[in-house]
Amino acid sequence: MSLRCAGIRTVLSAVFLTAITAIAQAPDKSPSSPVPQTILDAKKIFVSNAGADSGLFPEPFSGDPGRGYTQFYEALKGTGHYELVADPAQADLVLELQLTAPNGPSHGSKVNGASDPVPMFRLVVYDRKSHYVLWAFTESIDVAVRQKTHDRNFDEALTAILTDFEALAGKAPTPTGPRPRSWPLR
User: Under DSSP, is residue 15 helix (H, G, I), strand (E, B) or coil?
Assistant: First the structure.
C-alpha cells in the first residue's frame, strides 16, 4: 500500500468518524417540556366545535362554518387511536376546534412585528376532569387567490393541526389518519 493510499484512507476514516459523532450528538427533536400524562393516556375524546368567525363561508372557503369541525372529527375518528364520545363527561380529553379570522393591520410591516392576519385553526386540549387547558395548537391557513387553492390550504392546515396533536400524544400517523400536509382531509 502506498503512502498516498494510506493518507486518503486516514482522511476518509476521520471524516467518517466525525460524521458519526455529529449524528450521535444531534439534539433530540422531541418536546423538551413534559407532555401532560393525561394527553398520553387518553382513550376517549370529545370534540367540541367552537365555531368559525363570520365572513369565511362560502368565500373564501367553500362549504359552511361546520366544515372544519366535520372534517377534523372524521379524520380523528379515522385514525382509530381514540374512541370519540358524544358526551364530554365520558371523555378523558376535550378537544376544542375553532376557525378564526383575526383582525389586524393591513399590509403591516413584519420587520416591526406586525403582519397581515390570516385565518387560522386553533385546537385547545382540555383535561375533562379539571377543565384546565393542557395544550394548544394554531395552524394558519395560507393565503390564496383561487377558490380551489383556498380550499386546499384549508384542508392542509386542518391536516397539520391533527398531525400536531397526534405527534404530541405519541400516536403514529396511520394510513387512514393524518396525512402529510400535501394530502387534503376531504
Answer: helix
Placement of cell 476518509 in the chain? 12
| Buried/exposed code over 54-81 (b: 16+ C-beta within 10 A; e: otherwise) | eebbeebbebebebbbebbbebbbebeb
**Are 158 and 121 in contact, with CB atoms under 8 Å apart?**
yes
For domain 36-168, the CATH architecture is: 3-Layer(aba) Sandwich (3.40)
Of residues 170, 164, 133, the one with CA closest to residue 42: 170
Contact 65, 52 (CB under 8 A): yes
Indicate the pTM of the whole model. 0.72
Q: What is the amino acid identity at position 95?
A: L
| CA 140, chain centre distance (Å) | 10
Cβ contacts of 74 within 8 Å, gap of 6 or more: 185
The residue assigned the cell 394548544 is 136
Q: Which residues of the chain have pLDDT under 70?
A: 1-31, 104-117, 173-186
Rounded Cα gap, residues 144 and 149, in angstroms: 6
Beta bridge partners of 139: 121
The grid coordinates listed for 103 are 383582525
Residue 37 phi, psi (nearest 5): -60, -30
- 34 grid coordinates: 413534559
Paired sense of beta strands 44-52 and 83-84, if any: parallel
